[in-house]
């Protein structure tokens, strides 16, 4: 009986544990899509956000929102992979130079 209780307790605490994401540059974002600048037309993206095309060296994220915490409405439920974007524009809807977020415990 104690073994079942201990197992249940371990599973419950395991379900409550949350992965922490960290970024070396920029804020953690959940973007609807992340692709290379060429796939999005780098010139159009550069014109839209007001930067030189040469400044876009990484991936571009569209329809981004910040991952600010845990729970409903905070961005914790990201349907795509969380990314770290060096710069965000248009109220964080567009991110440039994005890289996958590092997951740590």
Task: Please describe what this structure looks like.
- GO terms for molecular function: structural constituent of cell wall.
- Residues 1-20 form the signal peptide.
- The chain is α+β, with helices and mostly antiparallel strands.
- It has 3 helices and 6 strands.
- The protein has helices spanning 2-16, 37-40, 42-49; strands at residues 20-22, 27-36, 59-66, 82-89, 94-100, 102-104.
- The strands form 2 sheets. It has a 4-stranded antiparallel β-barrel.
- Strand 4 and strand 5 (94-100) form a beta hairpin.
- The longest helix is centred in the N-terminal third of the chain and has 15 residues, at 2-16.
- The radius of gyration is 18 Å and the shape is elongated.
- The protein starts with a helix and ends with a strand.
Q: Please state how the strands of the largest beta sheet are arranged side by side.
A: 2-3-5-4
Mean pLDDT: 74
Oligomer: single chain
Binned, the helix content reads 25-40%
| Number of H- or I-type helical stretches | 3
Main sheet summary:
4 strands, antiparallel, barrel
Distance between the termini: 31 Å
| Total count of strands | 6
What is the N-to-C succession of helices and strands?
Answer: HEEHHEEEE
Radius of gyration: 18 Å
Q: Report the β-strand fraction as a percent range.
A: 35-45%
Give me the secondary-structure category. alpha+beta
Tell me the overall shape. Answer: elongated
Unreliable segments of 5+ consecutive residues: 1-19
